[in-house]
Design goal:
The active site is at residues 47, 84, 278. It holds the Pfam family Peptidase_S8. 30% of the residues lie in helices and 17% in strands. It is of the alpha/beta class. The chain has a single domain, classed as 3-Layer(aba) Sandwich (Rossmann fold). The strands form four sheets. The protein has a seven-stranded parallel β-sheet with strand order 3-4-2-5-6-7-10, sandwiched between helices. Strand 8 and strand 9 form a beta hairpin.
Length: 367
């Protein structure tokens, strides 16, 4: 288990909106057009916990769980002493001084990583089992996992029967979308295609990271370096796996993840900033909540995870790995998909309308 890094914390609110993230994925436009904001939906965030008193989450924190020895080992205290989990949660559903993708969604904080940033896969498995057992009573429809190993895999075949994989499969079958970070070790693995465990499982929605704007240059602890940045350039640290290599285990989608400003733990209105596939994953989790809310309202049912994935891909923006990146990694030259909230909701709406016409016995081709 790779310890997650601490976000840079600030007492002041400098960037109250996730402006460039929001603009790139057209989230505000989608929320307005389709009248969605995450209301009634619930996400479980498996991470370092949550600053539950932050104004960004006021009135929307459901009963969480602590699977670490921190906070005196209290199973009912998922407080975040590290910051990563609060940053991730804010990207999904901040609705106070910051605005996340689904700003009215509920959150279930599940602390599986300690205040050092480290954790165990046993704790993650137990947490997923807890989510599976409590998903109905808490209304959980999305799990966000911005965590993983430091490995690089091209298939889930070597993990047959794995405990975490099996629980995520059961959650997926139950309609709960498991959004998992692809990993931050592309440079460390000498630019070899692949993803970390557990993102490699084919039933996850695996997420890589792009830049959301011209942010200058960055050098990362792994050795990855971006000489310059621009919207939709894949970050040099983001692991990636094209379907031509990984088949059904390929990276599903990319999202803006560097640098991302969100909720912080210094005080109840503080903010933090961080880079990573950890920050891209909650963007996708938030969009999934919006899609689920829309489908539930207009179709009367929760969509399957397979349908959600289909709409994410149908509405995505194609990006080419290596067309304009300026960094120190080798690029695949392959085309990947970058999420669009507006595109995903449009794809969902079209399918719902098509189904309604078919149910009414109308052949749209003759209209």
């Amino acid at each position: 288990m790779v310890p997650v890094e601490k976000p840079l914390q600030s007492d002041l609110t400098v960037m109250p909106e996730l402006l460039e993230v929001d603009l790139l994925v057209r989230a505000a436009e989608a929320r307005a057009k389709f009248n969605v904001d995450g209301s009634g939906m619930t996400v479980a965030v498996l991470d370092t916990g949550l600053r539950t008193t932050h104004v960004d989450f006021a009135g929307r924190v459901r009963a969480g769980r602590n699977f670490t020895s921190d906070n005196n080992g209290s199973p009912t205290d998922p407080s975040d002493g590290q910051g990563h989990g609060t940053n991730v949660a804010g990207i999904i559903c901040a609705g106070g001084v910051h605005t996340g993708m689904a700003p009215r969604a509920n959150i279930v904080p599940v602390k599986v990583l300690g205040n050092s940033g480290g954790g165990s896969f046993l704790a993650i498995r137990d947490a997923l089992l807890w989510v599976l057992a409590n998903r109905a009573s808490l209304g959980i429809s999305v799990v966000c996992m911005s965590l993983g190993a430091s490995d690089n895999n091209t298939s889930d075949a070597d993990f047959a029967g794995d405990g975490i994989g099996e629980v995520m499969r059961k959650l997926t079958d139950a309609g709960v979308a498991c959004c998992v970070a692809a990993g931050n070790d592309y440079f460390a693995h000498n630019s070899a295609q692949g993803m970390s465990y557990p993102a490699i499982f084919r039933h996850t929605i695996s997420v890589g990271a792009v830049y959301d704007g011209d942010e200058g240059s960055f050098s990362y602890g792994s050795g990855a370096t971006a000489l310059s940045t621009a919207p939709d350039r894949i970050t040099p640290f983001s692991q990636r796996l094209h379907s031509s290599v990984g088949g059904d285990c390929a990276t599903d989608i990319f999202a803006p993840g560097a640098p991302t400003t969100s909720s912080g733990i210094r005080n109840d209105s503080g903010e933090s900033i961080q880079h990573g596939t950890s920050q891209a994953t909650p963007v996708v989790a938030g969009v999934v909540l919006l899609v689920q809310q829309f489908h539930l309202r207009v179709a009367g049912t929760m969509p399957s995870v397979a349908d959600v994935r289909k709409w994410l891909l149908a509405g995505a923006v194609p990006i080419v790995d290596g067309d304009d990146e300026e960094d120190n990694v080798v690029h695949t030259g392959q085309t990947f998909n970058r999420i669009s909230a507006f595109g995903a909701l449009t794809a969902c709406a079209k399918d719902v309308a098509r189904s309604a016409l078919i149910e009414a016995g109308i052949d749209r081709s003759r209209v």
